[in-house]
């Protein structure tokens, strides 16, 4: 779908996957005006195909668009584009546990203009690929690396937007994590270097021994994760209290040491919920040892994946049925 300032969104089409024409002076190639989303289509046991809260992805894309000076797209047009692609690719939607068709809606600025100002032309596209589990080897605790020198986002920056530039900034810290034997990087607030923001591609939760969940509040640096929102709701439904506030690495370390923090997990569309087994930095290690994965982590995971696959009741009407049984 193409957007121009004069004509708005127009010329929607479904095309076979392949290269797209791109002018070398396209704004996205020079000033990085690019935003994206990620969601999954699941084939349920009864054969129907569903996605999970696609309108939330549409809303978040539009928030990213506003921050990156890109045009907003009407929510129903976004959802329609997802529907049309999934319907065209229905035979590619795998069935089975942890299997899905991953959908990547994205928007680029493609005005041919070498000047630093918001582009007057944009394109919105959705591509798809069958996907298995995010981490190979099933649900097992991940190790995360605390990056103490490299930041991904700063106050007033684009941290809350889902834009390519954030991920470009996260790649060197992600390499640092891998060099230290960790699968994910933990980003902290740039100002204090102690307040937890999020992981490279996931939000984070801690679980206290009294059943309270702690998660960093949306502070402008972190992504408003749809899995995060859904888990806050599911935990509250079960009577847990959820504190959305500043959470620090010091609090995490002290809580593990005195037994008041008993679980930690990361969450996102790709990995759903992943127990955190270890936090490493140059100075210290927090290790949950054989206590990870925790009980609440796994039961929230089971509930959320159960809703997505149809095994659990969809009380909040989160599923969007694209192909009926
Ligand atoms: N934070 C970051 C940086 C991410 O890339 C993602 C994945 N989209 C998340 C959090 C989790 O968001 P969601 O639950 O909407 O996938």
Annotate the secondary structure layout.
Elements (H helix, E strand, L loop, with lengths): L1 E3 L3 E3 L16 H5 L2 E3 L2 E5 L5 E4 L1 H14 L7 H14 L11 E10 L11 E11 L10 E5 L17 H16 L4 E5 L7 E4 L3 E6 L4 E4 L9 H12 L4 E4 L3 H10 L2 E8 L3 E9 L4 E3 L7 H15 L9 E5 L2
Parallel strand pairs: 8-9, 8-15, 12-13
Antiparallel strand pairs: 1-2, 1-7, 3-6, 4-5, 4-6, 5-17, 6-7, 9-10, 11-12, 11-14, 14-15, 15-16
Helix pairs in contact: 2-3
The structure holds 4'-deoxy-4'-aminopyridoxal-5'-phosphate.
The site of 4'-deoxy-4'-aminopyridoxal-5'-phosphate has 12 residues, from helix 5.
GO molecular function: branched-chain-amino-acid transaminase activity
InterPro entries: Aminotrans_IV, Aminotrans_IV_CS, Aminotransferase-like, B_amino_transII, BCAT-like_C, BCAT-like_N, BCAT_family
Enzyme class: transferase
């Amino acid at each position: 779908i193409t957007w121009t300032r004069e004509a708005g969104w127009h010329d929607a089409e479904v095309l076979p996957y392949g290269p797209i024409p791109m002018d070398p002076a396209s704004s996205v190639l020079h000033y990085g005006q690019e935003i994206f989303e990620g969601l999954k289509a699941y084939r349920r046991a009864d054969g129907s195909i569903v996605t999970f809260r696609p309108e939330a992805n549409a809303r978040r894309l539009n928030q990213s668009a506003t921050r990156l000076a890109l045009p907003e797209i009407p929510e129903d047009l976004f959802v329609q584009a997802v529907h049309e692609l999934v319907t065209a690719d229905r035979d590619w939607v795998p069935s089975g546990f942890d299997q899905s068709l991953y959908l990547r809606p994205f928007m680029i600025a493609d005005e041919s203009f070498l000047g630093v100002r918001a582009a007057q032309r944009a394109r919105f596209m959705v591509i798809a690929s069958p996907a298995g589990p995010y981490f190979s080897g099933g649900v097992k605790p991940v190790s995360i690396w605390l990056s103490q020198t490299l930041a991904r986002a700063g106050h007033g920056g684009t941290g809350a937007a889902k834009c390519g530039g954030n991920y470009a900034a996260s790649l060197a810290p992600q390499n640092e994590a891998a060099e230290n034997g960790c699968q994910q990087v933990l980003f902290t607030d740039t100002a204090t270097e102690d307040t937890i923001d999020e992981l490279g591609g996931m939000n984070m939760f801690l679980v206290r021994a009294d059943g309270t969940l702690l998660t960093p509040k949306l502070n402008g640096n972190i992504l408003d994760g749809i899995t995060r929102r859904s888990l806050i709701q599911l935990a509250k439904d079960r009577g847990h209290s959820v504190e959305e506030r500043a959470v620090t690495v010091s609090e995490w370390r002290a809580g593990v040491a005195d037994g008041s923090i008993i679980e930690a997990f990361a969450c996102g569309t790709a990995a759903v919920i992943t127990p955190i087994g270890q936090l490493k930095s140059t100075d210290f290690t927090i290790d949950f040892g054989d206590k990870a994965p925790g009980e609440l982590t796994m039961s929230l995971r089971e509930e959320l994946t159960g809703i997505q696959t149809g095994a659990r009741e969809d009380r909040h009407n989160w599923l969007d049925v694209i192909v009926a049984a």
